[in-house]
């Protein structure tokens, strides 16, 4: 009985003793690895911002750059039309850092204590958003804007609040949204209609 107790007490310690770093140089699923597998030009292409938000996110993550598998990093390019917004969203698996390359952006996030932090940034200035916090970027300049972001995850995930709340499949019941936002059902229906495909 005592030996079982000792094992139960030590088991959590054993699980924390693992090496969190990669135990191999790389892990590309295709066994015919070439030099091209380690290079990605997707972030060099200007994104199409002719959409309801006036922004476009081009991901450089493990889904389109397989060499990132197991490396724990990824990057995005975010293009903004004048007045464009990268709508409120969060990354459940990563902290985000970013550098404004061009333009003038309002960058903001909200803490779990409902404290809003924001600043207007220009080219060369950097920001950081802690993992999982709701945040956004808005182009407040007169021309286009561009930011390059980096993540400490090969696949940070994105929970884009307008889509999550008003365009999920199946949809969140209207009575839940009307109660949560303290609005009439016609307001919820109007918002949902903007995101229907």
From TrEMBL:
<dbReference type="InterPro" id="IPR006044">
    <property type="entry name" value="11S_seedstore_pln"/>
</dbReference>
<feature type="binding site">
    <location>
        <position position="91"/>
    </location>
    <ligand>
        <name>oxalate</name>
    </ligand>
</feature>
<feature type="binding site">
    <location>
        <position position="91"/>
    </location>
    <ligand>
        <name>Mn(2+)</name>
    </ligand>
</feature>
<dbReference type="Pfam" id="PF00190">
    <property type="entry name" value="Cupin_1"/>
</dbReference>
<comment type="similarity">
    <text>Belongs to the germin family.</text>
</comment>
<keyword id="KW-1015">Disulfide bond</keyword>
<protein>
    <recommendedName>
        <fullName>Cupin type-1 domain-containing protein</fullName>
    </recommendedName>
</protein>
<dbReference type="GO" id="GO:0009506">
    <property type="term" value="C:plasmodesma"/>
</dbReference>
<keyword id="KW-0964">Secreted</keyword>
<dbReference type="GO" id="GO:0048046">
    <property type="term" value="C:apoplast"/>
</dbReference>
<keyword id="KW-0479">Metal-binding</keyword>
<feature type="binding site">
    <location>
        <position position="89"/>
    </location>
    <ligand>
        <name>Mn(2+)</name>
    </ligand>
</feature>
<dbReference type="GO" id="GO:0030145">
    <property type="term" value="F:manganese ion binding"/>
</dbReference>
<keyword id="KW-0464">Manganese</keyword>
<dbReference type="GO" id="GO:0010497">
    <property type="term" value="P:plasmodesmata-mediated intercellular transport"/>
</dbReference>
<feature type="binding site">
    <location>
        <position position="76"/>
    </location>
    <ligand>
        <name>oxalate</name>
    </ligand>
</feature>
<feature type="binding site">
    <location>
        <position position="86"/>
    </location>
    <ligand>
        <name>oxalate</name>
    </ligand>
</feature>
<dbReference type="GO" id="GO:2000280">
    <property type="term" value="P:regulation of root development"/>
</dbReference>
<feature type="binding site">
    <location>
        <position position="135"/>
    </location>
    <ligand>
        <name>Mn(2+)</name>
    </ligand>
</feature>
<dbReference type="GO" id="GO:0045735">
    <property type="term" value="F:nutrient reservoir activity"/>
</dbReference>
<keyword id="KW-0325">Glycoprotein</keyword>
<feature type="signal peptide">
    <location>
        <begin position="1"/>
        <end position="17"/>
    </location>
</feature>
<keyword id="KW-0052">Apoplast</keyword>
<feature type="binding site">
    <location>
        <position position="96"/>
    </location>
    <ligand>
        <name>Mn(2+)</name>
    </ligand>
</feature>
<keyword id="KW-0732">Signal</keyword>
<dbReference type="InterPro" id="IPR001929">
    <property type="entry name" value="Germin"/>
</dbReference>
<dbReference type="InterPro" id="IPR006045">
    <property type="entry name" value="Cupin_1"/>
</dbReference>
<feature type="domain" description="Cupin type-1">
    <location>
        <begin position="41"/>
        <end position="189"/>
    </location>
</feature>
<feature type="binding site">
    <location>
        <position position="96"/>
    </location>
    <ligand>
        <name>oxalate</name>
    </ligand>
</feature>
């Amino acid at each position: 009985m005592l030996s079982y107790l000792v094992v139960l007490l030590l088991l959590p310690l054993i699980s924390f003793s693992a090496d969190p770093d990669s135990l191999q140089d790389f892990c590309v699923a295709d066994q015919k690895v070439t030099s091209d597998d380690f290079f990605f030009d997707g972030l060099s292409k200007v994104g199409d911002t002719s959409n309801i938000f006036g922004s476009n996110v081009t991901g450089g993550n493990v889904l389109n750059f397989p060499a990132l598998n197991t490396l724990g990093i990824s990057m995005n390019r975010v293009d903004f039309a004048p007045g464009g917004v990268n709508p409120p969203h969060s990354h459940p698996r990563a902290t985000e850092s970013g550098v404004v390359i061009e333009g003038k952006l309002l960058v903001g996030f909200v803490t779990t204590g409902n404290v809003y932090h924001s600043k207007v940034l220009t080219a060369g200035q950097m920001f950081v958003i802690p993992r999982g916090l709701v945040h956004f970027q808005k182009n407040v300049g007169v021309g286009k804007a561009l930011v390059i972001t980096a993540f400490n995850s090969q696949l940070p995930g994105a929970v884009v609040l307008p889509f999550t709340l008003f365009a999920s499949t199946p949809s969140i019941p209207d009575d839940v949204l009307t109660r949560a936002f303290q609005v009439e059902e016609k307001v919820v229906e109007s918002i949902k209609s903007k995101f229907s495909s």
